[in-house]
């Protein structure tokens, strides 16, 4: 009789875990995007809205927790004020559990970014530069931007490589 | 601070300078590496290439793609991406690099104007038809040519930069090399100097070692020479003492004979001269012992009061002869007993007192003792004598120096007294000094660190064993153990004079043999003998269980060393005589051990009995009844005459005559055993000498009655004696 009791306990625990996972997955049911899709998150994610992907338009990105940061970058002639959702809030809304993500750009550039970067620094997906939406010519619509001026140690080759501009998709392996 | 050789300082400074310069150069190299910003160089190459490639791709897209409205949007997006690439050249870090390269800058401005033309075309585009396609392709073809040239221009510029940088780095590395060479050179010089320094040090160390070795040898030589000198002095002194003892002993015996006037005077002179000579030899022996470092302190509880009193007592007759007042004062705050070497302390005091009395012709000599700093006691001997010239003061404590040559002629002496005193005081951890002015007297002082002690005073060693031998001296059977012929003769003659019969043993073994054959009442034992020394003989005697374990053994020592006495007592001897033998002391010792008497001076003060029967008995024995009675009569008459003189001197307040009269009375009274009277006279004498004549009133008032009582007591004892 001891063995079935033990199995019962394990079963209950497993049930709780699954229920919790489902609960978390369904805590923020996401609607499909209404405007043009700016960012497509795909792969091993828990929260999806269209075809096992999370598609986000400008309005949805605006709703996420955002930051504004004033910084100079190696790609601009002077410091500007950049605004956009925090990378970690984008990843959380998609339910990413992986350690690393792969960011794709419109021009075919691909870079892997450790998820820990998004938590250690206030990395944003910049959408606006000095209050205006960033065009493709100005490295828009989304720009993975590290707070270089607040953290000078970030001015190194590997972070500059991760600073992807003209972002259109995030793939979670 | 130590002085370093100039070369060492220079080379060290040079090495440090070169090192600092090399560090600067290394820093420069590192900075240049950092500053070169390979990232930017790589970026500009990469972006130039990507720009060219994007142009090619866009042209391909245009030529081989399909042509519809959706394709136009795609084409525009790709054009935007191409434009963003161009924006990098215009705004990012690589812009600065492009600005530095004239060819690339020219190329870039061409590309920008071409792009602006193209932008205008693309903006105006309604659809991608073949006509538009042809125009765009023409534009893109031109653009492609320029972007390719941009790559070349950038590459050319980078090649130049690299070359220039290499040359600059090479120059820096050369500089660094020079610095390191300079540093090595300076370091080498420094090492060489240090090495030379070390070698020099080693050499001088060796030289010093050799020197100190030589010094040690010569010091040892000097020391052994000094040792030999001291040994020689000690031996010679000892050798001189032996015959001198004979001279003193014999002249003492001679003095007692009834000689005619000149002969008596000669014998006195011989006796005094011999004793003076002995004193000098003692001084020399003492000094040589101190110099040889053979002096040992015998620290024990000392009663300062008694010590001072004894010292003063010793000089009182001499002071009286010169009509000097001899005063003593011990501060009441001093502890009753202090830890010190009584023998040495006494020796110093006697030296200073003897000097003071010797050089003072009128006035007084005062000895005072008082505490100074914590644990220090100061002794002052002040006199009103002739004083010492200031120029002579420094050499006063040097050995063999006297004030000046005339002093030596006038007063004699070895001149060792103060030198010995100084060494003794220093050995006791103290200091000694003198203040004096010519004609104004002197103050000799010394101070010693003496700590108080609470332990009871060590039992004096000379206390005789309480043993009753009620025998007349004439019946006593004595053994004299003495190896020296002169000393034998002196001892035997003195004993005969005292009426004792004595047997002679000329060595320790003979003495032991004699003692196994017959019994003696007392043994006089020489301490230093060739075969067995006196202590060993005594030890062997004491090991028997018969009379020999108890017989009184009196040591006869050459004197000098202070520990002889305790050695003798430890060996089982009962008493101690220092050569030269003197009738008085010999008689006292014999009486003490044969008749069980104790010395008069050990009689406690205050409880003095009126007369001393033993003295009277001794007079009886020595003189016979009639002569004793005559002597007592004479004493009575003289004393009765003296009393009024004393009283008148007292009334007139004349201290010196009073002291002298009291001294005479004391001597006469003691001679007939009138102890209470002698004690009273002594008190009177003290008062007169100390200048407190007023205190003597009670004594003077009591004197007539005391004299009558004493005479009556003597008369009673005479009657008793004649009845028996």
Structure description:
The complex is a heterodimer of chains A (173) and B (724). Chain A is globular, with a radius of gyration of 19 Å. Chain A has a single domain (5-172), classed as Oxidoreductase, molybdopterin-binding domain (Sulfite Oxidase, Chain A, domain 2), CATH 3.90.420.10. Chain A is an alpha+beta fold. Chain A is built from 5 helices and 11 strands. A 5-stranded mixed sheet of chain A has the order 2-1-11-5-6. In chain A, strands 3-4-8-9 form a 4-stranded antiparallel sheet. A two-stranded antiparallel sheet of chain A has the order 7-10. Helix content of chain B is 65%, strand content 10%. Chain B has 21 helices and 12 strands. Chain B has helices at residues 6-35, 38-64, 69-91, 94-100, 102-124, 130-256, 261-291, 304-321, 342-358, 405-411, 417-427, 485-497, 508-517, 534-542, 563-570, 583-595, 613-623, 625-652, 655-671, 675-690, 697-723; strands at residues 300-303, 325-330, 337-340, 364-371, 376-383, 431-437, 441-449, 477-481, 501-505, 522-526, 553-557, 575-578. In chain B, helix 18 (625-652) packs antiparallel against helix 21 (697-723). Chain B starts with 5 loop residues before the first helix and ends with a helix. Mean pLDDT of chain B is 80; it is low at 456-470 and 599-608. The A-B interface holds A 74-77, 106-107, 135-139, 157, 160, 165-166 and B 39, 54, 77, 80-81, 83-85, 87-88, 91-93, 95.
Break the fold down into its secondary structure elements and pairings:
The complex is a heterodimer of chains A (173) and B (724).
Chain A: H1 2-25, E1 37-43, E2 54-57, H2 58-63, E3 66-71, E4 80-85, H3 87-94, E5 100-105, E6 110-114, H4 115-120, E7 124-126, E8 128-129, E9 132-133, E10 143-145, H5 157-162, E11 167-172
Parallel strand pairs in A: 1-11
Antiparallel strand pairs in A: 1-2, 3-4, 4-8, 5-6, 5-11, 7-10, 8-9
Chain B: H1 6-35, H2 38-64, H3 69-91, H4 94-100, H5 102-124, H6 130-256, H7 261-291, E1 300-303, H8 304-321, E2 325-330, E3 337-340, H9 342-358, E4 364-371, E5 376-383, H10 405-411, H11 417-427, E6 431-437, E7 441-449, E8 477-481, H12 485-497, E9 501-505, H13 508-517, E10 522-526, H14 534-542, E11 553-557, H15 563-570, E12 575-578, H16 583-595, H17 613-623, H18 625-652, H19 655-671, H20 675-690, H21 697-723
Parallel strand pairs in B: 2-4, 8-9, 8-10, 10-11, 11-12
Antiparallel strand pairs in B: 1-3, 4-5, 5-7, 6-7
Helix pairs in contact in B: 1-6, 2-3, 2-6, 3-5, 5-6, 6-7, 6-12, 7-11, 8-9, 9-11, 13-14, 17-18, 18-19, 18-21, 19-20, 20-21
């Amino acid at each position: 009789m001891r063995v079935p009791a033990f199995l019962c306990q394990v079963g209950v625990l497993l049930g709780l875990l699954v229920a919790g996972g489902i609960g978390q997955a369904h805590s923020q049911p996401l609607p499909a995007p209404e405007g043009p899709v700016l960012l497509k998150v795909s792969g091993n994610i828990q929260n999806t809205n269209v075809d096992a992907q999370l598609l986000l338009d400008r309005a949805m990105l605006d709703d996420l927790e955002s930051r504004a940061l004033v910084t100079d970058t190696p790609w601009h002639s002077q410091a500007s004020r950049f605004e956009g959702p925090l990378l970690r809030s984008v990843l959380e809304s998609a339910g990413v559990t992986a350690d690393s993500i792969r960011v794709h750009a419109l021009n075919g550039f691909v870079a892997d970014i450790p998820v820990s970067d998004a938590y250690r620094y206030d990395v944003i997906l910049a959408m606006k530069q000095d209050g205006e939406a960033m065009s493709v010519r100005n490295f828009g619509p989304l720009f993975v931007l590290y707070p270089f001026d607040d953290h000078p140690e970030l001015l190194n080759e590997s972070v500059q490589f991760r600073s992807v501009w003209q972002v259109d998709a995030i793939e979670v392996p | 601070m130590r002085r370093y050789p100039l070369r060492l300082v220079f080379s060290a400074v040079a090495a440090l300078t070169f090192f600092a310069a090399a560090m600067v150069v290394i820093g420069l190299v590192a900075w240049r590496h950092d500053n070169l910003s390979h990232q930017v160089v790589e970026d500009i190459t990469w972006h130039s290439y990507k720009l060219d490639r994007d142009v090619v791709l866009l042209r391909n897209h245009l030529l081989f793609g399909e042509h519809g409205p959706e394709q136009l949007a795609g084409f525009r997006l790709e054009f935007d991406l191409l434009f963003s690439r161009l924006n990098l050249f215009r705004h990012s870090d690589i812009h600065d690099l492009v600005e530095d390269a004239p060819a690339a800058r020219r190329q870039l401005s061409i590309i920008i104007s071409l792009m602006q033309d193209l932008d205008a075309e693309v903006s105006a585009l309604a659809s991608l038809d073949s006509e538009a396609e042809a125009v765009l392709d023409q534009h893109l073809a031109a653009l492609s040519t320029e972007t390719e040239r941009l790559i070349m221009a950038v590459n050319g510029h980078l090649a130049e930069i690299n070359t220039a940088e290499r040359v600059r780095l090479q120059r820096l590395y050369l500089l660094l090399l020079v610095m390191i060479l300079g540093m090595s050179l300076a370091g080498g010089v420094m090492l060489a100097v240090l090495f030379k320094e070390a070698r020099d040090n080693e050499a001088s160390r060796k030289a010093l070692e050799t020197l100190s070795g030589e010094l040690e040898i010569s010091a040892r030589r000097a020391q052994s020479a000094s040792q030999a000198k001291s040994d020689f002095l000690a031996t010679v002194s000892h050798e001189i003492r032996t015959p001198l003892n004979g001279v003193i002993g014999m002249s003492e015996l001679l003095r007692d004979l009834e000689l005619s006037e000149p002969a008596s005077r000669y014998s006195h002179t011989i006796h005094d001269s011999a004793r003076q000579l002995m004193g000098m030899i003692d001084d020399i022996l003492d000094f040589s012992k101190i110099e040889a470092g053979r002096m040992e302190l015998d620290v024990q509880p000392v009663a300062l009061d008694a010590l001072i009193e004894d010292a003063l007592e010793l000089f009182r007759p001499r002071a009286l002869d010169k009509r000097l007042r001899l005063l003593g004062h011990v501060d009441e705050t001093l502890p009753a007993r202090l830890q010190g070497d009584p023998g040495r302390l006494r020796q110093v005091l006697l030296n200073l007192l003897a000097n003071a009395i010797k050089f003072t012709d009128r006035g007084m000599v005062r000895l005072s003792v008082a505490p100074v700093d914590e644990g220090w006691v100061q002794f002052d001997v002040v006199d009103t004598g002739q004083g010492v010239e200031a120029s002579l003061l420094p050499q006063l404590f040097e050995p063999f120096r006297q004030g000046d040559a005339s002093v030596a002629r006038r007063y004699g002496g070895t001149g060792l007294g103060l030198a010995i005193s100084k060494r003794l005081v220093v050995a006791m951890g103290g200091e000694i000094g003198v203040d004096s002015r010519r004609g104004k007297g002197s103050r000799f002082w010394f101070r010693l660190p003496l700590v108080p002690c609470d332990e009871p005073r060590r039992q004096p060693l000379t206390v005789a064993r309480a043993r009753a031998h009620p025998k007349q001296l004439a019946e006593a059977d004595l053994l004299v153990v003495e190896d020296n012929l002169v000393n034998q003769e002196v001892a035997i003659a003195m004993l005969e004079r005292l009426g004792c019969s004595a047997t002679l043993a000329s060595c320790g073994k003979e003495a032991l043999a004699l003692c196994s054959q017959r019994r003696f009442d007392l043994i006089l034992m020489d301490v230093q003998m060739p075969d067995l020394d006196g202590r060993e003989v005594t030890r062997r005697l004491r090991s028997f269980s018969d009379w020999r374990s108890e017989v009184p053994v009196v040591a006869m020592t050459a004197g000098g060393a202070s520990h002889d006495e305790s050695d003798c007592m430890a060996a089982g001897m009962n008493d101690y005589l220092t050569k030269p033998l003197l009738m008085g002391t010999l008689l006292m010792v014999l009486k003490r051990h044969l008749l069980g008497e104790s010395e008069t001076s050990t009689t406690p003060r205050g409880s003095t009995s009126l007369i001393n029967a033993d003295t009277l008995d001794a007079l009886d024995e020595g003189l016979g009844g009639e002569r004793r009675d005559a002597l007592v009569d004479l004493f009575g008459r003289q004393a009765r005459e003296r009393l009024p003189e004393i009283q008148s001197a007292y009334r007139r307040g004349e201290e010196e005559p009073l002291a002298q009269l009291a001294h005479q009375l004391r001597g006469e009274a003691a001679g007939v055993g009138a102890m209470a009277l002698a004690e009273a006279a002594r008190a009177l004498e003290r008062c007169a000498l100390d200048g407190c004549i007023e205190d003597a009133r009670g004594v003077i008032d009591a004197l007539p009655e005391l004299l009558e009582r004493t005479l009556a007591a003597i008369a009673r004892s005479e009657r008793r004696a004649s009845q028996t």
